[in-house]
Protein: 9-cis-epoxycarotenoid dioxygenase
Amino acid sequence: MASSTSTNTWVKSQILPLSSSTRSNNSANRRRTNYITCSLQVQTPSLVRIPQHTNTTPTYQAPTTINPIPKIKTPKDHSSKNTNSLPNQQWNLLQRAAAAALDAAETALVARERRHPLPKTADPRVQIAGNFAPVPEQPVQHSLPVTGKIPNCIEGVYVRNGANPHYEPVAGHHFFDGDGMVHAVKFNDGAASYACRFTETKRLVQERALGRPVFPKAIGELHGHSGIARLLLFYARGLFGLVDASHGMGVANAGLVYFNRHLLAMSEDDLPYHVRVTPTGDLKTVDRFDFNGQLKSAMIAHPKLDPVSGELFALSYDVIKKPYLKYFKFSTDGKKSDDVEIPIDQPTMMHDFAITENFVVIPDQQVVFKLQEMIRGGSPVVFDKNKTSRFGVLDKNAKGEKDIKWIEAPDCFCFHLWNAWEEPESDEIVVIGSCMTPADSIFNECEESLKSVLSEIRLNLKTGKSTRRPIITDSEQVNLEAGMVNRNRLGRKTRFAYLALAEPWPKVSGFAKVDLFTGQVTKYLYGDQRFGGEPLFLPRDSDINSSSEEDDGYILAFVHDEKEWKSQLQIINAMNMKLEASIDLPSRVPYGFHGTFISSKDLEKQM
Ligand SMILES: [Fe+2]
Structure:
């Protein structure tokens, strides 16, 4: 069973970074031995652990041959009690027989998979090495040590989402596949507390009840014939009532938004999950959130909150059936508009989009889903070289798609868009994003190193043409990914963006304040062997009508010291880029994805 006896061998192997040459040369050997050594090993074993599962005594036990890797004895799991588990202890004879047969089939599948090395993009020993490795939940801890002074205006909670696999992977695993975990630092009168909790998704709750992972991992497992076999196994388990996918399969690990008194944790493969910040600063999953029955399809993890109207704008994409893309919005009190179906020829990855004062800007780019590629042995996430990237500009209040204006932007792939605004004097929409090459390198192994170029893309609504230019000069070019502009000015012309210095990729060595008008870059580096993730910009004044300067605020960033193996939250003054305060955290915070800040005033109104 995946959660029972254990040693620390697997976790050691998972957390220890490899040099790339070691990775490529020895991958087959590693798969046989399941063991890696590294200088970090001596510093980390007591700190990196896979959460233990104390809330169930499942009758469903994975065949021991599925996971022959011994496991670490893990610390007490503080997970919320499972209140929604499958009635697996009441399976009938047919179900038990089916479960045994499907387990045997899975054992055979895993044994076959282990005869071949995994690509780096699906190898858990690469994907969740070092501080990408998961941590157990932590109940709230108060009065954390603070160096410096927390600015008076920071009252509320900083929450950040991330991928944190609850169970060790039995086969392929991509970093994006992990279960959602939210980390929360709450500020109250100059003091800070910290907690982290899994988001109790339907899949996690069921896997806990079963005591092992059974839901397919969208990127790490679903490629080639093995991926098809895993899908068939999953559907067969569903047919026999051993798992239930009818309430979603998402991991809720990517984005966070606070809207209409709800904190929502999101991934683009499912509905959001409502998570509540408790008065003490802890986190509690309320439920999968369908906006009171209004939302019936997945929603992307980067909905856009308009700072002026207070409306929330979102997309939904489908990888199997038409319509492949829908746009909708929510009024400030949470009333959803009708879906606007946007016709596109093929299912396309749309991780992000942008808003302006009057429009939504929708990227229709070259990373698409071709499920038939699995039959040919490949990944269903592919770069379509025959497609021309384009942006769709649609009125925010559109009732239908007929007025969408598509403007081509060849060879442009932006995983994220940081902002967009209108320049009526030139009939242009200006889009700020990081153009990534190779476009699919996050998902598919390739030799070319990743480049992420902060770019200004101009879409001319009159001529239907686009232009694109790098914002930073060639000599200063640096990979910039994950970040934001002042959220009080989203959709309006902004001068500054705060973006992660994504080097050495995929680590983040600091962040940059970029003057989007001049290209000037001011860097803040975390220091030797210290890395972080998305910098959050918190305006000093939450009033959007405030006359304060655009950069009058603070950057909040989790920073992990890989020498000391300790994590901090740092607060940096965005005007002068000086450190104001650092908060020592009681446990490691893995590198993660996106966050937001909820003011204490908003927290009081929380549902
Ligand atoms: Fe994202």
In short: The two ends are 38 Å apart (CA to CA).
